Amino acid sequence: MLTAFWVTFGLVFVAEMGDKSQLVALAFSTIYKWWQVVLGILIATLVVHAGSVALGKYASEYLPDAGLAIGAGVAFFGFAFWTLRGDTLSGDETKIRRGWGPIALVTVAFFIAELGDKTMLLTVTLATQYDSFVGAWIGSTLGMVAADALAIAVGSNLKGRLPQKRINQGAAALFFLFGTGLIYEGFTG
After folding, report:
1. Chain Cα centroid distance, residue 19
2. Taking the CB of residue 64, how many other CB atoms lie within 10 A of it?
3. Which residues contact 100 (CB under 8 A, 6 or more apart)?
4. 98 contact partners, CB below 8 Å, separation of at least 6
């Protein structure tokens, strides 16, 4: 369980750097109190990642191990390219409805932003590699919340002085490394 926790925590944390949902968190942090944004992110991530881990566990039960390892490795290459490309917010994603309470608004917006996102797909992929549902679920959830909390804290203080290109390059290199390892494992057993 601890291995699943730490690996998913670390990889989701790295994957979240510069991700669209991190940008959503940063945008909300300029409007609402930091704890409201973090709580909304936590609620949304608990739900999204529970479904992601369940999907990954289902796939690992019914697909051959070698195929899963190769597929996961290829997915990691995709995550690397996605990270290098970067994410931006569209005009629709920056609009905020004032009628909702801050926590509910952040929860719903973050839930929608996370559906089909790189970190959601990464969580599905990682869940196929580990036996611990709880370890993968809590690790991926806390990795996402920690990365977003860091973005909120740092972004509020530095206002755009972070070298996002270098952060994305480092994250992409890690994804390539893990992807290569998984593909090797899939072919060698």
Report:
1. 8
2. 11
3. 108
4. none
Angle 13-89-105 (CA atoms, 0-180°, nearest 5)? 80
pLDDT tens, 16-30? 887 777 777 877 777
Please tell me the distance from the alpha carbon of residue 71 to that of residue 65, in angstroms, as a whole number: 10
Tokens of 179: 């992807």
Give yes or no for a contact between 136 and 59, defined as CB atoms under 8 angstroms apart: no
Q: Is the pLDDT of residue 91 over 60?
A: no
pLDDT value at residue 119: 83
Give the relative orientation of helices 118-127 and 34-62 as an angle to the nearest 10 degrees: 40
Domain residues for 42? Answer: 2-188
Amino acid 100 reads W
In total, how many domains does the chain have? 1
- The one-character DSSP state at 98 is T
Entry pTM: 0.67
Angstrom distance (rounded) from CA 15 to CA 57? 20
